[in-house]
User: Fold this.
Amino acid sequence: MCAEPLLAVLIGPGGVGKGTIARRLTELDPRLWLSRSWTTRNKRETETGDEYVFVDRETFERAIDEGRFLEWAQFQGNLYGTPVPTGTGGADVLLEIEVQGAEQVRRHYDDVVIFLVIPPSMDHLESRLRGRGDTEDHVQRRLHSTANEMRVGQELATHVIVNDDVERATNEILSILETLRRDRRTLA
Assistant:
């Protein structure tokens, strides 16, 4: 068996369901460890508080200076970052991050597996953004940034997953991960 854990990344436009898929993946696959990202943005009313580590800008910038992030980026005025994974117990690591962060991870880990999660349509994405309680201004900014996120995501992605159904999309990712694990064992 290969000693090195897989590093898998979920990217995609805001509102596409990355967080829901990430949670479902870790519920169904005990070999996955989900890294919890930090952010300086405010918690949404629809969030429980465990989606991110919510911190102020000063705390985040101190962590940058201390080299505590695997990747970090500024997106729509807020900072987002993934702490260097520790305490994974040898599990495969799953990151749910922005495309800017995925570019950084790709530069450091050429064997990273990047899943671009896309919506079945722009209307579906807009509906999801509105459904999670985002302000109209935020919805419009997210929709405006979607084209670039999708373009960059297509360039980075190892696999493209359409999130037309969370269970179907989750099972597709699990199937790909299992194939990758089997291939790694064969090469080990």
